[in-house]
Amino acid sequence: MIQFANRIQPLASNVFADMDRAKAQARNNGKDIIDLSLGSSDLPVAEHIIQVIEKALHDRTTHGYLLYNGTREFRETAAKWYSDRFGIAVDPDTEVLQLIGSQEGTAHLPLAILNPGDFALLLDPGYPSHAGGVYLAGGQIYPMPLLAQKQFLPVFADIPDSVLSQAKMMVLSYPHNPTTATATLSFFQEAVAFCREHNLVLVHDFPYVDMFFEEAEPPPSILQADPDKTISIEFFTLSKSYNMGGFRIGFAIGNQEIIKALRQIKAVVDFNQYLGILNGAIAALSGSSECVAETVKTFQTRRDALIAALHNIGWEVAKPQATMYLWAKLPELWHKSSVEFCTQLVHETGVALSPGSGFGKSGEGYVRFALVQEPAVLELAATKISEFLQSVSSKQ
What we know:
The chain has helices at residues 15-28, 47-57, 72-86, 102-113, 128-136, 161-164, 185-197, 222-225, 256-269, 275-286, 290-312, 338-349, 375-394; strands spanning 34-35, 96-99, 119-124, 140-145, 167-172, 201-205, 232-237, 250-254, 325-329, 351-352, 354-355, 366-370. The longest helix is centred in the C-terminal third of the chain and has 23 residues, at 290-312. Strand 3 (119-124), helix 5 and strand 4 form a beta-alpha-beta unit. It is built from 13 helices and 12 strands. It has 396 residues and is of the alpha/beta class. It has 2 domains: 13-39 and 291-388, Aspartate Aminotransferase, domain 1, CATH 3.90.1150.10; 47-286, Aspartate Aminotransferase, domain 2, CATH 3.40.640.
C-alpha cells in the first residue's frame, strides 16, 4: 500500500472541491446550476489586454522558458503602478516578485518562513490557500476568530503568549474574503506595531484592492503602515480587477529579504508565467483604469440587485462595501450546518453557494454568495431559495 506524507492529510477537504462534487451530482440529477459558489469573474478581459497577448502568441521569441531577468519590465510596471497608487517608492529589482497568481505566492511563502512546528496566525474564516501553505511547510495554525461584533477584525490581545513565542508570521487580507469586511489604516498600523513587537512577518493578501464601492473609502495598503517595508509583504493579483483569473498572473511587493526568500522557493518550483501574459498584464497596469471602473460598477449593480431580492424573500443581508461577495447569516429557520444547507440547496434547486465553515470554524452559521451572474439570474436564484426555505418551513 502506498504511504503518503502526513502533510497532505489536512488538504483532503476543500470548500471549492466539496461544492464542485455537490454541483456535479445535482447536474447529473437534471438540475440547471446557478453557480454562486466560486469567486471566478464571469466578465471579459478588456480588449486592449487581449490584443497584446494575442500578438505575443505569434512571436516565437515568447515561447520559451522565462527566467527572472525576463520579468524586469513587468516588475518595473508593477512598482510604478504601486507607487502611483499609494505614494511609496518601490525598487523593482529587490522589492517586487512576479507570481503565477497571488495564491501561488501566499501558498509558497510559509515554506520560506516557517520551520516545522512554528505557528502562523491566520484569519478565521479565511482564504483556504493561506492554511494550505502552512500545512505544507509543517507549521501550526492559530486561527484568529473574526466576529461580527468586532467588525470581522482580529483581536491581537487575545492571542496567547504561548502561541506568540512560537509564531513566525501573521496573514491578513482586507477587503476580506469571505466576510467582505474592510480595514482602516489605523488597524494596519496596530498590526504592524504588534508584529514588530513579536518579531512576526506580516503578510497582506490584497486581491480586492480595486473592488470597493462608491460609498466606501479606498482600501489602504499594509505598506502605508510600514512604508520602510521592515516586516511586511503584500500580494496582488489581476484576477479580480482585470478579470484575468484564468491567466494566473500576480505579484508581491515588500521587504527585500522576504521577497528574496520567496524567490528562492519559486526557483525550485517553477520558472515564470508566459511572457505574452506578462505583456498583457503590463498593458493592464499601465493603461486606462476605465475597464476596472466598469467591472466594479457591474459588481455593485449585482450586489444591490441580490440584496434587494434576498430582502424581498425575508433574508436580511448586510450590504458589503467591498469585494464581489455577500456574507449572509443562515436563515433562522435553518438549524443544521452551513455545509448541509448548501448541499441540500444545490440538490433541490441547483443554486450553489459556499458554506461558511469551509473557510474556517468561525465561518459556521454563514454562507457566501459570489456575485458572478447577471442581476436577472441572481434574482432567479433568490426566488429558488425562497421556494427552498418555504419547503423547509413546511416540514418543521
